[in-house]
């Protein structure tokens, strides 16, 4: 298929539709804040709930349903590619941030791109125009493309909340009990335990005796763990502290999803029809789908809420966050131009010259697309969970809105990936 007007226009319209859908959802968040349908404090609570409840549920269902023991090799390539591209992005972003003295959030914006909502919207738009049919040999191109993008999103979301908070707040930040004596540590933890016990007794539905006993047991184990950590050599403390960053709700959800998907008995229970042994599908899996399905839309809405707050503060002469043009330009060039120029040739050569990526051109196309595109909307949730300054949150909201306004230029990557995948497949 040659490079004609239709082959350019269709991907552009698909990218435009996906971008407009995101921008309109952001606008709905602005309207909600303008008409006092959600308060500033409520938006923070919703953001934390998205990260600690909705996202883990989404990962359990998406990863579990798409991972199979029989197709594990195909998804292994995506896992390796996702980890590799994220680490390369992190290295480039860290150097660029230091050299050009960019704000700390710029490192995150360069490292993590949108791996969920925008790719899925793009696939939906391409499916309606049958643009993927030329690559597909066996049918089900849209379903496979979605599954590949979702497995990649598992990697991205897990790493975002594993290493993102420390990147946002600074790598040299001391822990809560660093440089403290043993007695001081005990006093601090005991005080935290009393505060948590009082708060839990007021908010929990469980009997007070159960709540207080559970809280005391939790902090008793916590105290022993802190003392044990302080007895270890510095290198061991640093290693354990790094590994602890991966113990968070999104990563736990991803691990649970992978376990369910790769264990045939569990996969059958959760995702088969009831006649085929899927006894959890109609109630437990459906509930997880309902909860997880709230994540993507709410994240975009919350970006609009933050943007509205920022614009109101600017109108009142307060600090509403400043978006440096140089920072925006560097991130845009890296995310929309540098990564496509790297990923498309690499995947093309692997697909054409080796058997490492199998024989599915849809897989090649999606892997070319995975590292490119606008920064992740999940950065707004990360800023809330990490306790970032208000001005920084508003700046991130402005940046995300601006980058999604120009995101239709991703059609260049779509066209390049389609042509390269076709050439590798000999279509």
From TrEMBL:
Pfam families: Mem_trans
One of the record's GO cellular component terms: endoplasmic reticulum
BP term (GO), one: transmembrane transport
UniProt subcellular location: Membrane
Keyword Transmembrane helix: yes
Transmembrane segments: 12-32, 75-95, 251-270, 282-305, 326-350, 362-383, 395-418
Membrane topology, from the record: Multi-pass membrane protein
InterPro entries given in the database record: Mem_transp_PIN-like
UniProt keywords, alphabetically: Membrane, Transmembrane, Transmembrane helix
Chief site of localization: membrane
PANTHER family xrefs: AUXIN EFFLUX TRANSPORTER FAMILY PROTEIN (EUROFUNG) (PTHR31794:SF4)
Protein name: Auxin efflux carrier
Organism of origin: Neohortaea acidophila
């Amino acid at each position: 298929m040659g490079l004609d007007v239709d082959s350019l226009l269709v991907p552009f319209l698909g990218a435009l539709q996906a971008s407009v859908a995101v921008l309109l959802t952001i606008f709905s968040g602005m309207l909600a804040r303008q008409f006092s349908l959600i308060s500033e404090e409520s938006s923070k609570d919703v953001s934390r709930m998205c990260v600690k409840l909705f996202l883990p549920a989404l990962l359990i269902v998406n990863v579990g349903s798409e991972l199979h023991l029989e197709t594990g090799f195909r998804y292994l390539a995506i896992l390796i590619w996702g980890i590799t591209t994220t680490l390369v992005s992190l290295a480039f972003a860290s150097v660029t941030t230091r050299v050009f003295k960019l704000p700390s959030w710029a490192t995150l914006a360069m490292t993590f791109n949108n791996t969920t909502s925008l790719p899925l919207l793009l696939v939906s738009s391409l499916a309606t125009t049958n643009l993927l049919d030329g690559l597909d040999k066996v049918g089900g191109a849209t379903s496979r493309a979605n599954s590949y993008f979702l497995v990649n999103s598992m990697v991205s979301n897990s790493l975002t909340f594993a290493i993102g908070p420390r990147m946002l707040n600074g790598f040299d930040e001391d822990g809560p009990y660093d440089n403290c004596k043993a007695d001081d540590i005990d006093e601090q933890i005991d005080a935290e335990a009393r505060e948590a016990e009082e708060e839990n007794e007021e908010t929990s539905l469980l009997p007070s005796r159960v709540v207080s006993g559970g809280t005391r047991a939790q902090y008793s184990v916590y105290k022993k763990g802190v003392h044990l950590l302080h007895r270890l050599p510095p290198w061991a403390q640093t290693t354990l502290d790094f590994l602890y960053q991966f113990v968070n709700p999104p990563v736990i959800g991803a691990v649970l999803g992978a376990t369910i998907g790769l264990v045939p008995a569990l996969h059958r229970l959760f995702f088969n029809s009831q006649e085929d042994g899927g006894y959890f599908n109609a109630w437990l899996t459906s509930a997880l789908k309902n909860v997880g399905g709230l994540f993507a839309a709410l994240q975009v809405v919350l970006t609009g809420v933050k943007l509205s707050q920022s614009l109101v503060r600017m109108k009142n002469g307060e600090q509403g966050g400043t978006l440096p043009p140089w920072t925006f330009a560097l991130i845009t060039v890296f995310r929309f131009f540098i990564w496509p120029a790297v990923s498309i040739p690499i995947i093309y050569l692997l697909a054409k010259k080796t058997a490492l990526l199998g024989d599915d051109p849809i897989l090649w196309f999606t892997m070319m697309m995975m590292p490119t595109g606008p920064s992740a909307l999940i950065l707004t949730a990360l800023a809330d969970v990490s306790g970032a300054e208000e001005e920084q949150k508003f700046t991130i909201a402005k940046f995300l809105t601006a980058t999604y306004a120009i995101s239709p230029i991703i059609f260049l990557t779509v066209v390049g990936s389609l042509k390269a995948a076709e050439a590798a497949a000999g279509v």
